[in-house]
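Protein modeling request. Please complete all fields; requests missing the sequence field cannot be processed.
Requester role: graduate student
Desired output: 3D structure, token encoding
Chains: 1
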Amino acid sequence: MVMPLFNFYLKDVHAKTSISIYMQSKYNCFERLMLTTGEKILPDHWDPTAKRAIVKHNRLEYPAINDWLSKMEMAAKDYFRSCKFEGFVPTAAQLKAHLEQKFNLNPKPPVIVLKTAPVTVLSYVDRFITNEVNNKSEGTIYVYNTCKRHLTGFINFLGKKDVGFDEIDEEFYNGFIQYLNSLNFARNTVGKQIKVLKTFLNAATDRGINSNLFFKSTLFKKPLEDVDKIALSEAEIQSIYSLDLNGEGSIEAVRDLFVIACYTGFRFSDFSTLTREHISENFITKTTVKTKAKVIIPIHPIVREILKKYDNEIPPAYTNAHANGLLKEIAQRAKINTDVEIVKTIAGKIVRNVHKKWELVSTHAGRRSFATNSYLAGVPAISIMKMTGHKSEAVFLQYIRVSELENAELIQGHPFFNANTFSQVA
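Delivered output (426 residues):
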């Protein structure tokens, strides 16, 4: 943890008489220090930016006051640093007690609110999400809030308003899984909620709020299954690109943006926010919205055609949901009619459904198509990962939709299958 800031302030900057100077610090999410310094000053003689007395007023005591404040700030930092060296972060109460003793302070009104009740799970989740609003994307915050809603529903189902961290055990885990299944969720949707719950629990553990580590055991695993999400072949992408959509407004723009995704691997949040500044003569350079990874992608000839069509000004993409609806219509008109069987577990039961491939086309299919087609074309996996921004090969490989036949054709030319490695026996 970085060193917290220690600031000085006046409670009432409009007071007409001298008022107390307070020290304040907030750190570790929930620790809040407020401490009187024992000094007073006229608000007109206080610099709120420098947080010190204004010496130019020629008051002999002001340099001494400023020295006193600097000594208190240094003492607070020294104590904080020594505690960290000993392996713990001091509470605001401990820090206040140390400074009061060192500087012989005895404030009459209590300015530290001690937290006597343990932090509960839902109350912590609320604080966690609030603190992450400025650090995470809007989509991630939406995912956090969705998990919080299901977690709240389950806890209410148990007849409780909240639970302690010590109650997150095997029974709680199994009950939460059953509750999510009762909502007719697919297995991977259930797994996503468990994954986000573990994010909450990890954060609480890192901050010393939770000491129950059952969630790190193999019994608290994220349900997962490989659902055959589609990728489009080069020929299918060409069929979509060849459609005459001139003059059809948003449907033409969505088609063009989707084709860009098929040749860049961008997510919706990235291809929908492309601007002229991201595009150079030979490359598209962008920091991805979701992971903040910088990617540099060569401009495919088809992408170059589309960019030229719009004079490097990317057309509006509306919303992801709107684009997904139009893409299904586009793919249907392009006759992407292959039958695709989707097998998934819903509410704990295996369900098999056959769909026309056009029914499954979405904006994210462009990203999977890019990964799959570039892999089939012989682009090294590590190079594709540099362009998609994947850091984990295991996650990247989930994007590769290669059939058994395509895989056999891909490796048919490998020396292993074309060289006689057996020695001739004399």
